[in-house]
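User: Please predict the structure of the protein below. I'd like the answer in structure-token form so I can feed it into my own downstream comparison script.

Assistant: Understood. Taking the following sequence of 123 residues as input:
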Amino acid sequence: MLDRVRVAVVVPAYNVEGAVGRVIRSLPSFVDDVVVVDDASVDRTAEAVAGAGFGRPVTLVRHARNGGVGAAIATGYREALRRGADVLAVMAGDGQMDPADLERVVRPVVLGGADYVAGDRLS
């Protein structure tokens, strides 16, 4: 929790068996739930998620067909909301995003100063 607000991270994942475990383990302690959406990976992404002990709730949702990152994020949002999340964030399953930035991204939403915040990993 961050300021008594339940934070969930959605991790869209496609063929990221070598990175997804590191992504989940790197998430800050204020993250209450992690929803990984395996978007019909052909590698061992699902096994990498299911076989690791991350010490926090991790929900794995698997798509039967690849729908793309947008579909994976939408599925993850629905599942995180169903699980009781107040604030949602997205962290790519391939490790492209720095988890140290997560609090700066979600804090404006947690404090009620923004409905949506988008990070820019390119600048």
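That's the full token string. The mean pLDDT is 93.
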